[in-house]
Amino acid sequence: MTLTVTPQLRAVPAGHVLAIAERGFTVLPKAFVDEHEHLVVPLAELAGDELIADERGRQRLPEPGVDVVVVDGESWAQAWWIPRAELHTLTAEQAPVSVWATRSGRYLRRHAGGEGLAVPAAARWSVLEQRAAGELLYRVDEQHLVDDGSRLMAVVRAARAAVTAVTLPVAGDAAGEAEAFAALATWVELLNQTVVADLRRQRAGVAARVADQHDGDLEAVARALSVHRPVSQWTLKDLLRRRDTTRLA
Prior knowledge:
Blueprint: E1 2-5, E2 16-20, E3 25-29, E4 39-42, E5 53-54, E6 68-71, E7 80-83, E8 87-89, E9 99-102, E10 107-112, E11 123-128, H1 130-139, H2 151-163, H3 174-213, H4 218-225, H5 233-248
Parallel strand pairs: 5-7
Antiparallel strand pairs: 1-4, 2-3, 6-7, 8-9, 9-10, 10-11
Helix pairs in contact: 1-2, 3-5
């Protein structure tokens, strides 16, 4: 059970860095350790100010023998850990990027360690907003995607199918090229106008149902709907207003 620590994540005295020791870690002058290396520290050795929370914000240590990963924060205090068993991958091992999801619906990116690190197998984990996770998954080859049945993966597959919906003509097929060009233009117009409007109505419908559950309290609605990606009260107000306008029409 190990914790990957970087000098940017953990505050140590000026001119010093964390380094591996026989038990836990020690602080050494930078002259003895490459400050850009990832340094691995047993999580069970941390205590007090060095202890970080789990995914739910609880200041505690994992159970003995539980394999965990630690996710970067803007500072050491904002980093958090999660049992590896609570993660599932969305990309195959051969994929150029490694995207994972937690049971609670958060998305993570695994940044593999490189040569010259203190521990070659060490990896860094960072949080992905759903928009960023979708963009990364969209760029991954089909055979390297792991379909977990989630709505995000359904969106990614729909987006990929939309781009390849129009069969492109073979080189030199002048009539086919003109037809494909026109069909693609219509496809773009449909996406920008009709399809986007329909998607907004679907999103507004979900927001309206949640708003009813919270008696129209937009602050509570924003909290309820921000589990997978942040949403503002202004966005919700605009969606609900457009939905009400559509109803009147």
